[in-house]
Design goal:
Keywords: GTP-binding, Nucleotide-binding, Repeat, Ribosome biogenesis. With 473 residues, the protein is α/β, with parallel strands linked by helices. It is 36% helix and 21% strand. Strand 16, helix 13 and strand 17 form a beta-alpha-beta unit.
Length: 473
């Protein structure tokens, strides 16, 4: 899951500065006068390997009119879109009437909101936060955004807490296998969703970009529960101009991470293009299972079909573990059999394997093909255990694992995939070196041993005895 974090507050409290620090960019305009941010702005951040989306918003005063009213509407939309809200206040100027209005509105939304007291540099932290205790927020963070102080510790607390209940929340709201339908605009994603549902649940129109937001549709099929996620088409970055379409891209990327299995729809008439490969890259980075659906297969002559199949086989040779289906979403041909691939992908992604089985596979693999020598010493891989699911994570323990070549890691991945019969899902490996348990151990001497050691030190080394040569008679 990629959490979405909205930054709200009065003008000039440092929202854009915090946004830039969180996303490590200068995308948000920053200046020392209020009202600079007119529209909400999106950026991607990364803390300790966990991605998140930050939304910078215009300042709120509580009494907006005209253009300010539109800014307020944009800010409130950001609150609705967010998983978590950071309410920024100015620690130097203290509590303001506008702060109380914003706090009251946030309580009504029911969103998880946290108070962030900014501009605390050069102040006593307790004094800086004392004015805002009356706002009634359970958690308060003290930061100095302009100096990048306190931000990492804030994210360290917020992101894991947000992730803990996220999967259970998604499971409750969207039961069963979550299937994300992604692809470029006008490749037939919504048509495929309607065909899989057996009814017109999403808008289908012969114009690129009809779907502006991700649509989650829970349903049942053969007494099994599923949730289809129809997403907006992702265009090349240079062709993205409208703000709403930029946000649609973020929604698409978020939907990929929400899914268990992703179906990438490719237009057979246009063939495989670079943007399809970019989407595949994001699916793999997110660790999601993948099914390829080559759509609009009906009506193509045999020569064109052969060319498309050759292109897919050649350019997607690195995805030999992913099932590929040639379908017509409009007429339904080939759509039903995709459920078999989806089921197999889900079972592989969520599989649980005992440690003794994984260790046995590792030992068989190393016996058949030993790891290489490093500086005259053989790399040893001792045992393996599972470290997570969706995607499966296998943790391998040994020594000198940092020197393990990429080719040998791929050999292990292919071996585990074949033996465990993993279909459609990537497998991630983590290699950990075993540490010497006695490296930091300090010998503790008894009082008697200490006295003997001190005496030996004072007397110096004992003289060596001369050995007498034995004479043979």
């Amino acid at each position: 899951m990629t959490p979405v974090i909205a930054l709200v507050g009065r003008p000039n409290v440092g929202k854009s500065t915090l946004f830039n620090q969180m996303t490590r960019t200068r995308d948000a305009l920053v200046a020392d006068f209020p009202g600079l941010t007119r529209d909400r702005k999106y950026g991607e951040g990364n803390y300790e390997g966990q991605r998140f989306i930050a939304i910078d918003t215009g300042g709120l005063t509580g009494d907006e009119k005209g253009l300010d009213a539109e800014m307020a509407r944009q800010s409130m939309q950001a609150v609705d879109e967010a998983d978590i809200v950071l309410f920024l206040v100015d620690g130097k100027s203290g509590l303001n009437g506008g702060d109380e209005v914003i706090a009251s509105h946030l309580r009504k939304t029911g969103k998880r909101a946290h108070l962030v007291v900014n501009k605390t540099d050069g102040q006593d932290p307790d004094i800086a936060a004392s004015d805002f205790h009356g706002l009634g927020f359970e958690s308060t963070f003290l930061i100095a955004a302009s100096h990048n102080r306190g931000i990492r510790s804030m994210l360290e607390i917020l992101l894991p807490a947000l992730e803990e209940g996220a999967e259970q929340d998604r499971a409750d709201r969207y039961p069963g296998i979550r299937i994300g339908i992604v692809g470029r605009p006008n490749v037939g994603k919504s048509t495929l969703v309607n065909r899989m549902l057996g009814e017109d649940r999403v808008i289908v129109f012969d114009m690129p970009g009809t779907t502006r937001d991700s649509i989650y549709v829970p349903y049942e099929r053969h007494d099994k529960q599923y949730t289809l996620i129809d997403t907006a088409g992702v265009r090349r970055r240079k062709n993205v101009s409208e703000t709403v379409e930029k946000f649609s891209i973020i929604k698409t990327l978020k939907a990929i991470e929400d899914a268990h299995v992703v179906i990438l729809v490719i237009d057979a008439r246009q063939g495989l293009v670079d943007q399809d490969l970019h989407l595949i890259g994001f699916v793999l980075d997110a660790g999601r299972s993948l099914v390829i659906a080559v759509n609009k297969w009906d009506g193509m002559d045999p020569d064109d079909r052969a060319k498309v199949k050759e292109q897919v086989a050649r350019r997607l040779d690195f995805l030999d573990y992913a099932d590929k289906h040639y379908i017509s979403a409009l007429h339904g041909s080939g759509v039903g059999v995709m459920y078999d691939s989806v089921e197999a992908c889900y079972e592989s992604a969520m599989a649980k394997w005992p440690t003794n089985r994984l260790t046995a596979i590792l030992q068989d693999a190393t016996a058949q093909h030993q790891p290489p020598l490093v500086q005259g010493r053989r790399i040893k891989l001792r045992y393996a255990h599972q470290g997570g699911s969706n995607p499966p994570v296998i943790v391998v323990h040994g020594n000198q694992v940092d020197s393990l070549p990429g080719a040998y890691k791929r050999y292990l991945e292919n071996t585990f995939r074949k033996v465990l019969k993993v279909t459609g899902s990537p497998i991630r490996f983590e290699f950990k070196s075993g540490e010497n348990p006695y490296a930091t151990k300090v010998d503790r001497l008894t009082p008697r041993q200490k006295v003997k050691k001190d005496n030996d030190r004072k007397q110096g080394p004992a003289p060596k005895k001369k050995r007498q040569k034995s004479l043979k008679r």
